[in-house]
Amino acid sequence: MVRIDDAVITAQTLEGRLVGQRQVEIGPAAKLTPSAQDFLHAQGVAIVRREVGNQAAPPTAPASAVARAAGREAFAGIFCPNVVLFDSQNEINHAEMERYINWLIEVGIHGLHPNGSTGEFTRLSQEQRQDVLQLVCEVNAGRVPVLAGASEASLRDVLKTAEYYASLGVDAIALMPPYYYEISTESLFEYCAEIAEQSPLDILLYNSRRFTQKLSLDLLERLLPYDRIFGTKDSSRDLPRLLNLINRLRQQRPDYVVMTGCEEIAFPAVLMGANGGTIATSGIVPEVVIELYEKAQSGDIERARELQYRILDLINLMLLDVNFPEGFKTGVAARGFDVGPARVSSSSAEQEYLLKLEAQINCVLADMGYPVQGPRACPATNLPPIVGR
Question: Taking the complete model, does pTM exceed 0.85, yes or no?
Answer without folding.
Answer: no
